[in-house]
């Protein structure tokens, strides 16, 4: 398999189009057509991780965080970023990053946190808006089912756990073919009336190109009439953070202690305890202060995240408990998630879980 083949499998889980605009995801170093001997999965790509890849004869590193985030103006080895890139290039090792593409995945970073913490029935905390599109097209009634099948195969018509979703109406279409046209039905220079079906399907924005290509290929007309709209509906399968419930209510302190143990956190910084039972829990791996308002609005009893500043804790406002468990601690199981995923998707592929320590924060 090539780097590109592995990337396609990873993008089934976390399409790069789902990453945030500020991010730098995908293949950062290396040749997409290079044959992969083995892959090493890590949270961060540091020099010790590249050394580990060399020792394990892995020529692909799959990293959660991107080692190249801002533009590099030179490669002299002056910084840890430059040294990593130079060492990877010198040893013909490719580096692929997923970051916020995986953050936004319904089966990604936050789903794994929920699994580790025993949070049930997790739902997206901040669903992505303006990511659902609607396609409307018009075709002869006899061709409508064939067109719908082609659109469904390309990824249209999926709503939650349902697929092949569409809505159709029948009516009469009219057109007149002019000079140079080659009409499928009707005659040049004459107005033609055709019994047509209006076909409506929705789809996630990153699938637009393949869906329109499927439409043009399946449609019998020389000129295809269609409309594309961006919907205001929030995408319940795409977005940041998750919220779910516990099997059994717990005391706040008891839940925080259990969470600390499961995340192997050295310290927990939290807002004032409210003396309430914990049932509804919101999580967001990594820096999550921006989601405090969403956690409150969703009725969370506790919000588990990281990188909270002093004034962020004031936002709890006696409505919930904010708990900072650490950036590394809330994202550490992401590499386990990716190893499990790749092992199931490509059983004969050599994939290794990195043993290198990449947490830059130490505790006394």
Cα distance spanning the termini: 45 Å
The count of β-strands is 15
pLDDT below 50 for ≥5 consecutive residues: which ranges? none
Q: Which term fits the overall shape?
A: globular
Sheet with most strands: 6 strands, mixed
Strand content: 25-35%
What is the typical, i.e. mean, pLDDT?
97
Helix content: 25-40%
Structural class designation? alpha/beta
Strand order of the largest sheet: 5-10-12-13-14-11
Order of helices and strands: HEEHEHEHHEEHEEHEEHEEHEEHHE
Tell me what you see in this structure.
With 364 residues, this protein is an alpha/beta fold. The protein contains eleven helices and 15 strands. The strands form three sheets. A six-stranded mixed beta sheet has the order 5-10-12-13-14-11. Strands 1-4-3-2-15 form a five-stranded mixed beta sheet, with helices on both faces. Helix 3 (80-90) links the parallel strand 3 and strand 4 (94-97). Helix 6 (144-153) runs antiparallel to helix 7 (208-218). The model has no long low-confidence stretch (mean pLDDT 97).
């Amino acid at each position: 398999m090539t780097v590109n083949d592995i990337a396609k499998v990873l993008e089934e889980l976390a399409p790069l189009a789902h990453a945030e605009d500020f991010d730098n995801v995908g293949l950062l170093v290396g040749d997409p057509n290079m044959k992969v001997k083995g892959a090493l999965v890590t949270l961060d790509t540091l020099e010790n991780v590249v050394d580990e890849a060399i020792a394990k004869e892995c020529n692909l590193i799959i990293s959660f965080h991107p080692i190249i985030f801002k533009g590099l103006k030179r490669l002299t080895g002056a910084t840890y970023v430059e040294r990593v890139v130079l060492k990877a290039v010198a040893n013909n090792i490719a580096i692929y990053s997923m970051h916020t593409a995986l953050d936004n995945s319904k089966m990604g970073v936050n789903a794994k946190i929920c699994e580790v913490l025993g949070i049930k029935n997790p739902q997206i905390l901040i669903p992505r808006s303006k990511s659902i599109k609607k396609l409307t097209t018009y075709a002869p009634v006899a061709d409508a089912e064939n067109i719908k099948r082609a659109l469904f195969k390309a990824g249209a018509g999926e709503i939650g756990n349902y697929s092949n979703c569409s809505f159709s109406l029948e009516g009469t279409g009219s057109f007149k073919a002019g000079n140079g046209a080659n009409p499928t039905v009707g005659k040049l220079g004459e107005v033609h009336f055709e019994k047509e079906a209006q076909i409506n399907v929705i789809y996630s924005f990153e699938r637009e190109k393949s869906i329109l290509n499927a439409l043009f290929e399946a449609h019998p007309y020389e000129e295809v009439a269609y409309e594309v709209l961006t919907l205001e509906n929030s995408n319940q399968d795409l977005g940041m953070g998750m919220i779910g419930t516990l099997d059994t209510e717990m005391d706040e302190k008891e839940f925080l202690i259990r969470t600390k143990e499961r995340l192997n956190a050295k310290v927990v910084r939290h807002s004032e305890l409210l003396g309430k039972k914990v049932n509804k829990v919101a999580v967001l791996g990594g820096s999550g202060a921006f989601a405090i308002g969403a956690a409150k609005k969703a009725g969370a009893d506790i919000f588990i995240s990281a990188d909270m500043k002093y004034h962020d804790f004031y936002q709890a406002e006696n409505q919930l408990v904010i708990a900072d468990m650490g950036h590394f601690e809330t994202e550490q199981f992401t590499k386990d998630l990716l190893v499990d995923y790749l092992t199931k998707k490509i059983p004969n592929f050599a994939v290794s879980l990195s043993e290198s320590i990449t947490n830059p924060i130490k505790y006394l």
